[in-house]
Amino acid sequence: METMRVFIVDDEDDFRETIVKRLNARKIRAEGASSGIRALEVLKEKDFDVIVLDVKMPDMDGIETLRHIKKMKPDIEVIMLTGHASVEFGLKGMQLGAFDYVMKPAPLNELLDTIGQAYNKKRGIIH
Amino acid sequence: MERNYRKLWWQHCLAIIGFSVIPLVFINLSLYKLFDNIFIGKMTESLRSTVENRRDAIDLFFNERVAQLYTVANTNTFKQLTDETYLSKVFEIMHAKSTSYMDIGIIDNEGRHLAYVGPYYDLLKQVNYKNEPWFIAVKANGIYISDIFMGYRKVPHFIIAVMVREKGVPWILRVTINLKNIDDIVHKAWFGKLSDAFIINSQNALQTKPRFGGEFLNPPIAPEFDTGTMKSQGYPDYSSVINTKVERIKSGVFDAFFAAAKIHNTRWVLVIKEDPNELLGDLQKGKYWVILLSILGFAVITSGAALFTNGLINRIRDTDRENAAHSDMLLQANKMIALSKMAAGIAHEVNNPLASIAEKAGWLKDLLAEEDLAGNPNYAEFNDSVDKIEHHVERARKIIHNLLGFARRMEPAKEKINVNNLLDETTGFLENEARYVNIQIVKQYADNVPVITNDLSQIQQVVLNLLNNAIDAIGRDGIITVSTCYHEKTDAVEIGIGDTGKGIAAGELDKVFDPFFTTKEVGKGTGLGLSISYSIVEKLGGKLKVKSKVGEGTVFTLLLPKQ
Description:
The complex is a heterodimer of chains A (about 130) and B (about 575).
Chain A: E1 5-9, H1 13-25, E2 29-33, H2 36-45, E3 50-54, H3 62-72, E4 77-82, H4 87-95, E5 100-103, H5 108-122
Parallel strand pairs in A: 1-2, 1-3, 3-4, 4-5
Helix pairs in contact in A: 2-3
Chain B: H1 5-75, H2 78-82, H3 84-97, E1 101-108, E2 113-117, H4 121-125, H5 133-141, E3 143-145, E4 157-166, E5 169-178, H6 180-187, E6 196-200, H7 224-227, E7 245-251, E8 254-262, E9 269-274, H8 276-279, H9 281-370, H10 379-403, E10 415-417, H11 419-436, E11 439-444, E12 452-454, H12 456-474, E13 478-487, E14 492-499, H13 506-509, H14 529-539, E15 543-549, E16 553-561
Helix pairs in contact in B: 1-6, 1-9, 9-10, 11-12, 12-14
Keywords (chain A): Phosphoprotein, Two-component regulatory system
Organism (chain A): Desulfobulbus oligotrophicus
GO biological process, one term (chain A): phosphorelay signal transduction system
């Protein structure tokens, strides 16, 4: 079985780096990008199974990034990460094809569950 | 800010009355003045014509007498007339058609009384008139009409003397005339009950007896009823009048019209006096009508203005109240919007560092589990600390969730709710807690409360919050009254939650729905409960109101639409 490849896009360095480390510690191939633009650049070269995308970022916000991602690689499942106040952005993201949204700060378990579900969906396995 | 409606009322009312009454009074006064002028003008004119008419009648009388005398003097010779038998015959003819002659005499150029017919024959026959003023006057003027005098007869009379020439020798024919005819003419000018007419000579001595006051040959005086006192006062002196004069004399209570006209044949003046009250009676009546109509008009205008102003002020008051209520609601809504935006901003900013802290703590936990640190003496401490960090992050997260309760934009659910059941269930959560502090929960449900469609959990949250507040407000020993009723008119269900707590002061009552407003001790309440409840209820299409009296308690009323 292939290992799951997860891409974390968030402008909060501490958050992103720690999440990446923790995922890696759980045998998940995780990588991070600090902005939507950087993420799109990385995506040109690499492929991922699941992208965790923060809604509120400078320059290019999560919704805009999501549109580009869905254009470039519609197969990749995207999970929107929202501050509480931007629930509607999470919902909007789902309308644009995101798999689900998770509210910050979320316990890692919750996030892992959602990532797992998204991964399963991508592989065509529905639990 | 409350307007001063009473002041506004007076301002409007007085303005309306002022703008209506001032023209009314002005028009009435000018009309009255106009009529007064016209009326007095007419009166003056009629008085003038009366006095001239009477004067002309008197003049006519004199002219006739004088003409008769000339006729007698010229149709008879001096010689014939000095014959007293002949003169007596002539006098009889004269006397037959006019009772005014009393006697007749013929006087020669030297003043000798040559012939006399009349009752005082013995007395007058001998008299020589050579030095009498009237004899001198008649010699100078050819004709003389005397003033009135009583003479020997003790009746008022006067004489007319004419001088004629026969072959260059002058002689004089003299008659005495009693006053009756003049009196008759003058008395015809006594129109009203109080009017008067009399003749005065050039010395302002009465020549005829006036109707009221004054004696022959004395100056005329006003009667007592004119002066209003017991003392009589003199009339104005018209003895020197040449052209007809009409005037109104007013001084104190004395008020009279006077018309004076000179009698051409004599040096007499005919004076007519009229009472204005009699003359102007109709005008006086008109004056009362004007006053009465003015008062009536004023009354109508005043009551109309009062009624109209009442309506106006009531409408203004209603509008003000509506506006106030509206702006209150608007203000509250605006506050809510601003605060929810701010809360959303803060939440996001706080959530990000919180997320980082949570991840770091999680990473530490991962590491603690991975590394073989279990043997480390401080392992338990590390583990405990990380747990605590996670615990407090979770706490902070919950606070922010609460804070964002009213910033949440989720679609409210639509469920069928039996309000009474919902209240039973919700009070059930708190019954134990209430019993513990000896608070009794009394339920007063209406039976006709319909099933409503709304978000059950959010309503429950609001009710729970209100109940919690009620318990906190009472503290210990009290009653919470939970009631429901149905307003058919507005198709709304009302939930009332009343407590017997300490109440809220009027000044603070309008702040209870403001976020962060709390009367609880520091650290005990966030001041968010009621503001969240308020925004939830608004979002659900309902209304949350509060009534309170210090010392008696507070009642929160929750109005929910049926649909």
